[in-house]
Amino acid sequence: MTQKRILILDGNPGEASLSRYFADSYGNAAKQAGAKIRLHHLSEMAFDMDFGKGNYTQFKALEAPLEAFMTDLEWAEHIVIMTPLWWGGLPAKLKGLFDRALLPGRAFNTRVSTRLGMPTPMLTGKTARVIVTSDTPAWFERLIYKQAFMHQTTKQILGFVGIKPTRYTWFSPASEATEQQVRRWSKTVSNLGKIAA
Questions:
Q1: CB within 8 Å of 82: residues ≥ 6 apart
Q2: Is-contact 196 4, C-beta < 8 A?
Q3: Fewer CB atoms near the end CB (10 Å): N or C, the chain?
Q4: Cβ(108)–Cβ(124) under 8 Å?
Q5: pLDDT at position 60, please?
Q6: Are 175 and 11 in contact (CB under 8 A)?
């Protein structure tokens, strides 16, 4: 029996957060269930977030944390991203990670197009789960914001490079969650880790 290869990204730029707590809970449960785990904490990754004046033929070399992330992304079969929802989207540093790391020639191929004329994704055969902490209820995100956050992460980031399907777990309200709520959410996250393994 092969061990499932799982990359976990704690996408909160803060050193202490629910995202970090859930990343550790998920990783511990998946590892105990037999998976191989590689864990990255965004708060510990030093890199220039700005793609700047780069283009698809001239771009900055990846700093060591971004190179390590990409190596593990290529290695993984399943990607788990823990992130808060800030101003309806990803934290700036997490978006910067995707801007800098998901580059042509490694994440997608601009020289070969799909039937729709889009670049060919290069990270196919992988699945994803995004675990969101938010003060916006999931129903509000669906009905009022028309799932804008999910469309961006599913279709314009992960799906664009071939990672699909992407499933979501949504915890809210997160800012003033009680200890009992956090324990309950953590149990849910641990169960997801066991199932993924």
A1: 8, 9, 10, 11, 12, 18, 19, 20, 22, 23, 26, 131, 133
A2: yes
A3: N
A4: no
A5: 87
A6: no
Check: pTM over 0.85? Answer yes or no: yes
Tens-digit pLDDT profile for residues 130-183: 999 999 988 888 899 899 999 999 999 999 999 999 999 999 999 999 999 999
Distance CA 6, CA 73 (A): 9
pLDDT of residue 1: 60
Assess contact for 91 and 11: CB atoms under 8 A.
yes
Give the tokens for residue 55.
């283009």
Q: Which two tokens stand for residue 196?
A: 């993924």
b/e sequence 37-64, b meaning 16+ C-beta within 10 Å: bbbbbbbebebeeeeeeeeeeebeebee
Q: Are strands 119-121 and 108-113 parallel, antiparallel or unpaired?
A: antiparallel
Domains located in the chain, CATH noted:
5-196 (3.40.50.360)
The confidence band for 51, taking pLDDT boundaries of 50, 70 and 90, is confident
| Chain mean pLDDT for the chain | 94
**For residue 162, what are the CA distances in angstroms to 33, 114, 122, 175?**
27, 12, 6, 33
CA nearest 74: which of 115, 41, 112, 102?
102
